[in-house]
Amino acid sequence: MSAISISGLHKRYPRVHALDGIDLAVERGEFFGLLGPNGAGKSTLINIVAGLTRFDAGRVSVLGHDVVTDYRKARRLIGVVPQELTYDPFFNVREVLRIQSGYFGLHKNDAWIDELLAALMLTEKAGANMRALSGGMKRRVMIAQALVHRPEVVVLDEPTAGVDVELRKSLWAFIRRLHSEGHTIVLTTHYLEEAEALCNRIAILNRGRLVALDTKPALLARGIGRTRRVCVTTEQPLAGLPGALEQKVRRRDGHMVELQLDKGTDSVMAVLDALRAHGAVITDLNMEGADLEDVFVELTRGK
Ligand SMILES: Nc1ncnc2c1ncn2[C@@H]1O[C@H](COP(=O)(O)OP(=O)(O)OP(=O)(O)O)[C@@H](O)[C@H]1O
């Protein structure tokens, strides 16, 4: 049985086909990344899995429980950390977590709440009013809130958006811990670095469609993963480029030109020679292997 199973899923808003036939299964125990540019449909998908958004066609279940016909059971098995910070400013942190526990009929949940507060470094803020917390702390409370009922499946919609580096690292550590304790984790993120560091399987969504779904090494091994980026800085802005190089340009900005080269067939030395023969005086050179960003850019570019 899959942790999350989605088949033939369609969701239309009046002006956009937000999800255009999604088939996807997240297995139990996976650390799954859901990536995509703005508007790709990630939040819509997550909200559907959480039972918060209606859809037009398809089937969605959490650990075998249909999110529509078996809503209550599905809801108990999943914890969703939404992207937007929504909270009631009149309650303190502990009250928020107690109220949330109450929704699940858990009236003696303080031991677990204390554990969550400690793990998320919120113990000292337990009595603080929500409105008095910083954005990063509110986000941690929302994570705790999603976990009060110890759901097996944890879905985090951009948990580290707008969070400083230090807190991001501690959130990563906490999410890793949840995963090592047996939770299935689904993470949406804009930070490719984050998906590369954490997820074992990654789906890339673009305009409501899945454009890739594979393990991280398999994604990197795709054709595009065999390229290398070379960034050349020249003394004078380049007037033009040798014809053969024009089509390899990825970015160009005054003194700098970034080329995407095939590791197998393009020799870096030959490229530099061609630039020099064209009158360029090279002052700096940077090379990078392909990373997930190349794959992402390639798959979500244009149409
Ligand atoms: N309630 C709504 N009413 C109408 N259109 C919506 C609604 N919610 C989302 N959309 C549209 O559906 C599409 C998918 O949006 P969604 O928020 O799921 O994307 P996303 O991948 O989560 O983007 P982001 O990374 O910016 O959060 C977008 O075109 C968006 O404008």
Automatic annotation (TrEMBL):
Stored Gene3D superfamilies: P-loop containing nucleotide triphosphate hydrolases
Start and end residues of each ABC transporter domain: 4-232
Domain of life assignment: Bacteria
Molecular-function GO terms, alphabetical: ATP binding; ATP hydrolysis activity
Matches recorded under SUPFAM superfamilies: P-loop containing nucleoside triphosphate hydrolases
UniProtKB keywords: ATP-binding, Nucleotide-binding, Transport
Pfam families: ABC_tran
Protein name: ABC transporter ATP-binding protein
